Amino acid sequence: MMTGSPTTTVMQPQPGLDVTLREAGHGAPVLVLHGGAGPDSIDSVVTHIAANHRALAPIHPGFGDTKRPETLNSAGDLAHTYLNLLDHIKACDTTVIGSSFGGWVATEMALADDHHRIKKLVLIDAIGPQIPGHDITTPKPNPAGATAQQQPRRGPSPAALAALRAYTGDGMQDTTLLQRATRITIPTLLLWGENDPIVTPDFGRAYARAFPDGRFTLIPGAGHLPMREAPELTYAALDGFLNDPREGHA
Question: Is 179 part of a structural domain of the chain?
C-alpha cells in the first residue's frame, strides 16, 4: 500500500461529477492514472513520484467505492474530465503517466489538450489502439471474495472489470487511436514489461512508432505492471525521462 499519508479529497472538475483525488508531494505536477487493476496498482508510482514532484492520482469513477454516472462511458470522457481537473487545481506543465487503461486515457488527454497543459507523456503497458496482428488478451477477474493471498495480482475484481468495460467496450480497443496518436508531438515514453501477457512488447513497439517523439523501453523480467514486478529498472527509466532537460522543461 501507499506510504507517506497522501491527502484524499473529492472534487467536482465539472458540474455534477465527483472525482476522488489522492495527492502527495510537492513540485511540478505529475498526474498518475491507474488501469483496470485499480487505484492500488499505482501506489508505488505515486510514492516514488511524490519524493520530487506533486503526485496527483484520481480514482476513475466506478472504481473502488466511487460511482460512475452513465454519461461517463469512454476513455475520451475521462480525458476531458481530467483536463478539467488540471484546470480546477491550476496545474500546468504537467507530466501524465498512465498504466494500462490509464495509458489510453493519457493519450486521449494529450490529443484533447488544446491549452498545452501537458508537457510529457508516459505510457506503461498501455492498451487503447487497435494494432493489426497484435490482439489484446483480456485479463481474468479475481473470483469474488478471494483474498490477495489466495489470488495475488491475477486480475481486476469483477466490479473493476465491469467499470473498465463501461469505458472501453467489449473490444477494449479504438480503431482510430493509432492514427490519431501521430498528432501528439510532446515527448512520449512507452515502458513495457518483457513478459506482458495482455499487450505484448511488439504491440508496444508498434504503438511507440506512432508518436513523432516517442521512444520505447523494455523492462526485462516484468509483466503488465512493471512498477511492481521490476521496480528498480522501471523507476530508473522513468526518472531518466522525467529529469532529462532535453525532454521538455522539467
Answer: yes
C-alpha cell of 126? Answer: 498501455
The rounded distance, in Å, linking the Cα atoms of 3 and 222 is 23
Q: Is 248 part of a structural domain of the chain?
A: no
Question: What pLDDT, on a 0 to 100 scale, did the predictor assign at position 56?
Answer: 98
pLDDT digits (tens, 9 = 90+) for 194-247: 999 999 999 999 999 999 999 999 999 999 999 999 999 999 999 999 998 665
Strands in 15-63 per DSSP E:
17-24, 29-33, 54-59
**CATH number of the domain to which 100 belongs:** 3.40.50.1820
DSSP 54: E
Decide: 124 and 96 in contact? Cβ < 8 Å: no
21 assigned to some structural domain: yes
Element housing 89 (H / E): none
Q: How far apart are CA 18 and CA 15, in angstroms?
A: 8
pLDDT in tens, 78-115: 999 999 999 999 999 999 999 999 999 999 999 999 99
**Structural domains of the chain, count:** 1
Range of the domain at 19: 7-145+152-243
β-pairing, 173-174 vs 214-219, is unpaired
Band the pLDDT of 170: cuts 50, 70, 90.
confident
Element (H, E) at 49: helix 43-50
The residue among 226, 242, 219 whose CA lies nearest residue 41 is: 226
Decide the pairing of beta strands 214-219 and 188-193: parallel
